[in-house]
Amino acid sequence: MKSPHESTAVFDQSLIEKYSVQGPRYTSYPTAVEFTEAFDHQRFTALAIESNASQRDLSLYVHVPFCDTICYFCACNKIITKNKTHSAPYLDYVEKEMQHVASLIDADRKVVQLHWGGGTPTFLTTEEQWRLTNMFRQYFNFATDDEGEFSIEIDPRTVTEQSIADLREMGFNRLSFGIQDFDPKVQIAVNRIQSYESTKLIIEAGYTNGFHSISVDLIYGLPFQNVKNFEKTVDKIIGLSPDRIAVFNYAHLPHLFKGQKQILDKNLPSPAEKLAILEMTITKLIDAGYVFIGLDHFAKPDDAMALDQKVGRLYRNFQGYSTFSECDLFGFGMSSISMVGNSYSQNDKNKDSYYERLDAGQLPTVRGVELSTDDVIRRKVITEIMCNMRLDFDAIGAQFGIDANQYFAQEKQALIALAADGLLTLTEHGFVVLPPGRLLVRNICMVFDAYLPKTQENTQEKTFSKAI
User: Is 217 annotated as a binding residue?
Assistant: First the structure.
């Protein structure tokens, strides 16, 4: 008998249509929609200092916003330029921010996770990459290579086999490659041309140089995609044998992201074709031996992500699924997000004002939110569902000193309908997410989101992507 990890999703067209609604991806709870300007740099400073009492390990993130070309599908905060002189002053200001934050944090707190994101981190020259690496190592205390996960997002078009070797020497032990689709027609439509052959060389260089883990990102729902041509991409990915695979749903929101206006609605796959692409992808990856973590992530059975989920330790933060929980996350650079204690906060998204705030001697925090007791309880519930595909109300009650069955009495009633549709199975103490529910896990979490009704009522434009 197959375990839930090995079972493929059940694709019922009427069920998919029923649950195809807009909803958060829950990289945080509350979501960024709830951030306000009442949370400023002074409050961030106070909470950073307070966080030392916990002696929690650290997770660090830096946002490198530069890209030399625009990918039309991209929803990231980015600066499109071919002028490489922009990056040096940006690093000057990141160092100012880093120095300021490091002065607030006990020097012996250990960094167990690091991630460079963007934009395109490999827009930086090798010398600038070394400079940023040395900045981190100067201001923070890093765990060893075997203890920590130190990752960087890679645009295969911007690196060589030598630069991959350089990244390993800098201390990175995990690579994340953006691929999206190998089909030339799709690549032209989204303005991202990269051949399979060149990408294969770079990924192989990652393994040759001893990186602990390699992940790749794909996107389904892009213009001109169909089952037949995307299957060729999936087969090539399986042949490359990455440790982790993310298969993201393209959210077409041109009113929010200017570059997406270059993508015409008429060229997008129909909802039925898009669903068929996803069904094919999940089936092929599971048949190839990957574990369906849930939502849009897959991992090899021996990968830390799959192993942590198996024992209930998987976690989720602004960097997505993570094998490191109980960390304070400090983000550096424009638009980056921090999670310190029971708070979330975000830096200024605009480069010039990000610089101005640092020139004024203050941190660039411009908005955020502090979690109430109810937020903390619901965050734990949503994290448990998103990561470990189950919930034990008795355990939640014991952790927070509440009668969880009474506290979530209304939500428990809503779960009955989800159980009737086969998304989960109710147990004596809670529920377990079933294979169809792994695909629609956002919908299950939405039951516990106290902010969602208000967001849906007050927001005229699309705020979230569709759950599937």
Answer: yes
* pLDDT of 155 above 50: yes
Q: Is 119 within any annotated ligand binding site?
A: yes
According to the annotation, is 67 in a ligand binding site? yes
Asked if omega into 119 is within 30° of 0 (cis), the reply is yes
Residue 120, token pair as written in the block: 């395109």
Does residue 251 have a known ligand-binding role? yes
On whether 279 is known to bind a ligand per the annotation, the reply is no
The pair of structure tokens assigned to 465 is 């992507």
> Does 85 appear as a known binding residue?
no
Q: Which two tokens stand for residue 416?
A: 């009955």
Q: What is the pLDDT of residues 42-89, one digit of tens each?
A: 999 999 999 999 999 999 999 999 999 999 999 989 999 999 999 999
Task: Determine the angle formed by the axes of helices 161-170 and 196-208, rounding to 10 degrees.
Answer: 30
306 is in an annotated binding site: no
Q: For 92-146, give the secondary structure using H, E and C.
A: HHHHHHHHHHHCCCCCCCEEEEEEEEECCHHHCCHHHHHHHHHHHHHHCEECCCC
pLDDT band (50, 70, 90) for residue 460: very low
* DSSP element (H, E) containing 263: none
Q: Is 109 annotated as a binding residue?
A: no
pTM of the model: 0.92
**188 labeled binding residue:** no
Is 120 marked as binding a ligand? yes
Q: Is 337 annotated as a binding residue?
A: yes
Round the CA-based radius of gyration of the chain to a whole number and report it.
22
Say if residue 75 carries a ligand binding annotation.
Answer: yes
Domains (range + CATH), the chain: 1-30+373-468 (1.10.10.920), 35-328 (3.80.30.20)
180 is in an annotated binding site: yes
